[in-house]
Amino acid sequence: MNELNVKLQGKDQFVYDMYINVRAFKSKLTLFSRQISNESFAHFPTLATQRVATRNAKKYSQLLDDLHREFCRRFSDFEKIDKFLQLVSCPLSHTLKQHCMTCNWN
Length: 106
Prior knowledge:
Helix content is 69%, strand content 0%. By secondary structure, it is mainly α. It has one domain. The longest helix is centred in the N-terminal third of the chain and has 23 residues, at 15-37. It is elongated.
C-alpha cells in the first residue's frame, strides 16, 4: 500500500495513470484474498512460516476483502469516468461513433 501511496502522490500525475495504479492495486487485493483463503501464502513468505497462518486464513482473507471494498468505495468516482479516461488515454483506439457515445453526443 505504501508503494501505491507514493505513486499517487507523485508530481505531474495524469488521472488515467492514477486510475490504472488504483485498479492494479484492487486486483492485487483480490488475488491475495483468494490465495490466502485457499491457504496459499506464495506472496506472503513470512506468513507461510507461521503455524497460525492456516488457522487464521479466513480472517486474513476477510481483512483483504474489507480493504478491497473500502478502496472501491473511496475510488468509485474513477469507475464513473472510466470510459472518458480510456478515451483520453488512447483516443485513436476508438471510432468516431464510440467517441460520440462515450460523450453522449448525438
